[in-house]
Structures are given as C-alpha cells and as structure tokens.
C-alpha cells in the first residue's frame, strides 16, 4: 500500500484530503509544518508527498530540495492557488512531479496519485537498467562525437582530473561513467554527487562524513562521499553550484589528500580521482566572483567538451534509433522506426534538452505508437513549429560565419548545410567560391 504524506498548515484541508486518499486505500500521514515534515521524512519512506507551495516556516521550493535530497524517489505534488501557478511550474523544473490547483478536484487528485506511482515505478526500474552498466552507451559518428571518443580513450587510463563541459542532458554523467569504466579504478566505486542538491548546512558532513553526536541529528557515524569513493572516482555534477566556502574546503582536500569528518580529530587518507561536470562557463563564474580560479585549474587538468545535439546533426537519427531500440525493449514493443516527417523534424529541431529530451520523446512516442512507424501524432507539436533558425542568412556580415557554422554542424555535408541555410545547393557553391571558404579534405 503506497504511503502518502500531506503537508499543509490548513488543518481542515489536510483532514479532508487525508480522508479522500484513505478511502482509496492509501496509507496517509499529515503534518502542518515543514519542521514536522522533516522529522517524518527522516523516519519514514513516502511514495508521494502532497505539499502546499506556501508554508509558514519555509518555501515549497526549499522543501522540494530537502525531500529530493533525503528521498530522491519520492514524488512531490505541489498544491497551489491560481495566483501561484508560475511558481508551481518552476517547482516542476526543480524536481516536483506535478502541481494541482486548489480547490482540489477529487478525481484529479486520484488520477495524479496513480500517475505519480506509475512514474516512480518506471524511474526505479529504468535507473537499474541505466546504471548497472553502460551497455546503453552510444558514441555517435559525427566528427565532434569521434573526437570526444578519442579524448575519452586517451584520458581515462591516466590519473588526471577531468572537467566535462556541456549543456544540460548532453550526457556528461554518462561520459564520466565511461571514463571511470575505462580507468584502472573500474572495479572500485563510482560515486556521483549532485552539487546543487545538497543543503548548505549538510555539505561538510556529506562530503567528509561525521561522527555520531557531532551535531543535532547526527545519530550515527556517517561516511562522506570522499571515503565512499575510496580507490574509485568521485563525480561532482554541476560543480558550479558549490558555495565559495565549500570550494575552499574541497580544494584543500584535493591538495592535502585527506579528510577530517565533522566532529572528529582523525584524518583519513583518501585516494580518489575527481571528475567534475558543468553546464556553465566556470571562467565566467570566476570573473563574477562565484568560482575559485585555483579550484578550476585543479579540476580542469583535462577538459572534455560534449557538443549539443543540434551541432551534431549527423548523429541525430542514430541516437533516435538507439533510443527507439531501448524503448522497444523496455516497453516490450516492436516499433520499426520514424516516418519521414518525424525524421525531418528531429533533424531541424534545436533540442534544448539534448539527449535526455530526445530519449523521453522517443520513449513516449514508442508507447503511443499504433503502427510500425512513429508519426507526427506521437511527437510533441513544438518539434514541428518553424524554427527561429539562427542559420538564416540575413546580412553579408553574418554570412561567412553562418555558412561555416552550418558546414561544421552538418559535418561538411553541402546539401544538408544548404538546407539549414535555407538556400539551394548551387547558391551555396557560389557563396563558397565568392567568400573563398575552403572545406577540409
Ligand atoms: N552516450 C550516450 N549514449 C546513450 N545514451 C546517452 C548517452 N549520453 C547520455 N545518454 C542519455 O541521456 C540522458 C542524459 O545523460 P546525462 O545524465 O549523462 O546528461 P548530463 O549532461 O549529465 O545532464 P545534466 O546536465 O542535466 O546533469 C541519460 O539518461 C542517458 O540515457
């Protein structure tokens, strides 16, 4: 029986929602403040948390962070008045499952609960599939993909720290796991840390561990990430989100190669390779005073750049088919491929969420597909909207740059490049000649 926690300072409302959910067979607890909620979440596992967006003792956003930290698999449903819908949408970006406007409609509530439980099941089994091994790893054939592979092969066996730079969803964590797998540390742990998700008051204890009784709530000894990754690899995801203070502590550990758990006098030697990832320019963050230059250089002994999907057009359909195969086996379906309209739309789309976005779109479409091929009907409409394509030629000054970028993006395929530039092949040839743009052999 799924366990649900309701957090709302409106006592009557809490009791009504509790009664509705209990009638449908769920086991429900309710609390009226964040402080109480924290205690409950520490002690018990909940499949779903319903919480009000505005609570007297903390913001709903803070609460999402905390729940995601303590219980990453718990699905969070935000309850909100109409005035707060923008914030509610923001909460989904932060990891909430969905929001529901107040006053609640009982059918909507029960539907949402079922959806949240279904998704939680999906996520759990998929995580196992993805993380038990990297068998789903796919390299791509474009030039940027090939040089990424070359660099990964080169740096993996070395002890060098690696900084992986790329937009969200491009596969930074996947690349980090690949580096670990190809390193001499492959049979030791790979510990991934989402640097943005750790509440600041817990950072030291999470990284370095603590001893029992060192602060309220330290009910037993805790092993920190560094010790847990001993002999293996520590992956610091979104490293730009670490506070300045934590950056100092981290740098010290990396230089001195030992940690001191909170509340302990004992220094524990550590042997850990660090791989960090970021989707922002850390040198710019440094200029703004948010990131320490010394730590940047310590992490950036070698840099891997993962290009966004829109800049490796030749890989797009290969990845789409790769994800289709995965989705077929995951959903026990046998969809053959994508129809021509969908393929075209995939190539033209700008993929702001990169591989993660594509994987989700393909999985959903595979589930919905009725025939042998995925059609426009199963794909979100935004993929078919006319791109405000920044390749379009609008002035002489940007022409050379735009042509060069289009060529690079398409791996120097002139027909594809002409299509991106919205000119015909012949015009492209003329322009190449006119501007004296040469192509690699
Ligand atoms: N090389 C790859 N082959 C196959 N699938 C991949 C590859 N890289 C990434 N993916 C898929 O894309 C998803 C996103 O990858 P990953 O989590 O590594 O991205 P990320 O860049 O670390 O994202 P974020 O910046 O949001 O943390 C993964 O779940 C994985 O399924």
Structure report:
With 441 residues, the protein is of the alpha/beta class. It has 4 domains: 3-124, 3-Layer(aba) Sandwich (Rossmann fold); 143-306, Rossmann fold (3-Layer(aba) Sandwich), CATH 3.40.50.300; 309-384, Helicase, Ruva Protein, domain 3 (Orthogonal Bundle), CATH 1.10.8.60; 396-435, Arc Repressor Mutant, subunit A (Orthogonal Bundle), CATH 1.10.10. The protein contains 18 helices and 14 strands. It has helices spanning 11-23, 34-43, 60-70, 85-93, 106-132, 143-155, 172-181, 203-208, 225-228, 244-256, 282-287, 293-299, 313-331, 340-348, 354-368, 396-409, 414-421, 425-435, and strands at 3-7, 27-31, 48-52, 75-80, 98-101, 162-166, 190-194, 233-237, 258-259, 268-269, 273-278, 302-306, 337-338, 373-374. The strands form 4 sheets. The chain has a 5-stranded parallel beta sheet, with helices on both faces. Helix 4 (85-93) links the parallel strand 4 (75-80) and strand 5 (98-101). Residues 123-133 have low confidence and may be disordered. Residues 130, 136-138, 166, 168-174, 237, 277, 279, 355-356, 359 line the site of adenosine-5'-triphosphate. The site of adenosine-5'-triphosphate has 18 residues, from helix 7 and helix 15.
């Amino acid at each position: 029986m799924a366990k649900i926690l309701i957090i709302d300072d409106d006592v009557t409302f809490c009791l009504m929602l509790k009664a509705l959910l209990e009638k449908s067979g769920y086991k429900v607890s309710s609390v009226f403040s964040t402080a109480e909620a924290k205690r409950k979440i520490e002690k018990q596992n909940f499949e779903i948390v319903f919480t009000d967006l505005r609570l007297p003792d903390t913001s709903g956003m803070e609460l999402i962070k905390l729940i995601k930290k303590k219980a990453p698999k718990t699905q969070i449903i935000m309850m909100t008045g109409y005035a707060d819908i923008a914030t509610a949408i923001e909460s989904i970006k932060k990891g909430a499952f969905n929001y529901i406007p107040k006053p609640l409609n009982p059918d909507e509530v029960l539907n949402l609960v079922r959806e949240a439980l279904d998704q939680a099941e999906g996520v759990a089994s998929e995580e196992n599939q993805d993380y038990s091994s990297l068998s789903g790893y796919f390299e791509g054939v474009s030039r940027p993909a090939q040089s990424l592979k070359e660099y990964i092969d080169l740096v993996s066996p070395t002890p060098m720290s690696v900084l992986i730079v790329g937009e969200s969803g491009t596969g930074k964590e996947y690349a980090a796991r690949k580096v670990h797998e190809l390193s001499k540390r492959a049979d030791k742990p790979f510990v991934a840390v989402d640097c943005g998700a750790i509440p600041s008051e817990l950072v030291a204890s999470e990284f370095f561990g603590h001893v029992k009784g060192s602060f309220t709530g330290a009910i037993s000894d805790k092993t920190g990430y560094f010790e847990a990754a001993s002999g293996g690899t520590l992956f610091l995801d979104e490293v730009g989100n670490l506070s300045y203070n934590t950056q100092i502590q981290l740098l010290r550990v990396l230089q001195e190669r030992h940690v001191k758990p909170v509340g302990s006098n004992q220094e524990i030697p550590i042997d850990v390779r660090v791989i960090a990832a970021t989707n922002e320019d850390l040198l710019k963050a440094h200029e703004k005073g948010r990131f320490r230059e010394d730590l940047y250089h310590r992490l950036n002994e070698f840099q891997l750049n993962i290009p966004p999907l829109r800049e490796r057009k030749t890989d797009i359909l290969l990845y789409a088919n790769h994800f289709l195969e995965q989705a077929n086996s995951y959903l026990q379906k046998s969809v053959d491929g994508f129809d021509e309209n969908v393929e075209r739309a995939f190539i033209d789309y700008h993929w702001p969420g990169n591989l993660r976005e594509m994987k989700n779109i393909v999985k959903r479409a595979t589930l919905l597909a009725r025939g042998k091929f995925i059609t426009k009907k199963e794909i979100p409409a935004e993929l078919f909207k006319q791109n405000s394509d920044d390749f379009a030629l609008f002035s002489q000054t940007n022409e050379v740059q735009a042509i060069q970028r289009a060529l690079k993006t398409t791996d120097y395929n002139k027909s594809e490049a002409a299509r991106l530039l919205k000119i015909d092949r012949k015009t492209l040839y003329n322009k190449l000649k006119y501007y004296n743009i040469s192509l690699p052999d």
